[in-house]
Amino acid sequence: MSRDFQGEINQTEAQIQSVLTQMEQLKQEFIAATVEFFRPWYWERTEAIAKTAPETTKELGVEKLKELKAEVRELQDATESTVADILNDNDLWWHIKRNHLRVEQYPDKLPDKIEVALRYIGGRLAPILQKYGYISDRYGGFGTARAWNGLYQESGLNLSGVDYKLPFYPDKWVLPSQIKTPIMRYFAIQEQAKKHEESLGKLMREKAESEAESLWNDA
User: Are 176 and 37 in contact (CB under 8 A)?
Assistant: First the structure.
């Protein structure tokens, strides 16, 4: 009885599609969690900075602080579109581009591309803070810790692929499990998809070789 290569190929393709569907669902879950994290974060981070820079805050006075708060609220209102603008970059997602983005060896560490994208979202607060004197870009862009908080401090970050021309949140933070869990699950099942694709490639080669052998024998 001859081997049913096409049946095996169809089954493997169905397995790949199932995993890709799960990955898209996890992507959307991650995006939704990111929106929920950053919407209050913009306000909380601004409030914390205002309290730890009393001289700047007192110099601004009540009316300027009201203007600052209004701009932060506008940023909060735009959180969903901000997150979508940055996280819907297809280059971030293996199931769309089939690129080589992968999880580092540390299970709790986000891939650099994802971490950097999140820090671009946080960086959208930087122009407001600069406008009101809380941070400066005079040291070469928002991408350094000293540019964000006005101090000559290193953030300890070691991320690849950062475009320091863009506002970038450089300080250490603790991301909630609601953000980390779906993205780590995403990259865990990415490995499943890659194995299925390897199996598919092997099946297609074996099918072609079998067809070639049959043609040879029939000649």
Answer: yes
Task: Domain ranges for the chain, please list them.
Answer: 11-218
Q: Is the pLDDT higher at 3 or at 87? A: 87
Amino acid letter for position 54: P
Q: Write the DSSP assignment of 19-46 as a string of letters.
A: HHHHHHHHHHHHHHHHHHHHHHHHHHHH
Best-predicted range by mean pLDDT among 2-16, 25-39, 185-199?
25-39
Stated pTM of the model: 0.82
For the residues 141-164, what does the mean pLDDT come to?
51
From first CA to last CA, the distance across the chain in angstroms is: 21
- Using the structure block, give the residue that is written with the tokens 């169905």: 14
Contacts of the segment 155-161: beta carbons below 8 A, 24+ positions apart: 159/112, 159/115, 159/116, 159/119, 160/112, 161/112, 161/113, 161/116
Q: How confident is the model at residue 74 (pLDDT cuts 50, 70, 90)?
A: very high
What the block records as the tokens of 61 is 């006075």
